[in-house]
Design goal:
There is one protein chain. This protein is α/β, with parallel strands linked by helices. 45% of the residues lie in helices and 11% in strands. The chain has ten helices and five strands, in the order βααααααβαβααβαβ. β2, α7 and β3 form a beta-alpha-beta unit. It starts with 8 loop residues before the first strand and ends in an 11-residue tail after the last strand. The mean pLDDT is 93.
Length: 206
Amino acid sequence: MPDLSNIKNIIFDLGNVLLNLDFDASIKAFQKLGLNKAAINPSVAFSDSVFYNLETGRITPAEFRSRVRELLNNPNATDQQIDDAWYAMILDIPEKRVKTLQDLRSKYRIYLFSNTNEIHIGRLLEEFKAIYGFEFSSLVDEVFYSHEIKARKPEIEAFEKVIKLSGVEPVETLFIDDLENNILAADKAGLKTLWLKAGMEMADLF
């Protein structure tokens, strides 16, 4: 269990902390649409600036799809095919994590800070409400999506924005993420941190 003494706020990452992900599923889906087989690992497949630009709100979903058609060398790929391939990595938010958030919210201020994009989050929020019958936003006090604040982890600027917008005191705030680079950046921004390593379950920590 993390040290929660003097902690008043908890900032959660979304992917692989609350939400299960499978990056390979999107890579395979893009391959079926024409992605070059030389670019099948995540560091290559998602290295094009179009993905960064979508996550930081610098381009629209329509501009994203146009660039993806170029990457795929498939001008006939439909918006739906591209969105489905891009969304394939999104799995589920297990009920035990939902209940943990509900329990924690009675004791702490709860925030979400996610590198995400308009295509992913729009569909995820719809699916969450269809499954659970209530809005995902009701689980947290405030959400910070990279495409809305125009900055993403592990940029220090992104953490500074979240700290300023939320009004939290960093020394009273625990940040939980699955990626070491994000944890290191959060440390530099003055936040308390918990690195959720592979095999660890968020719901078992509290």
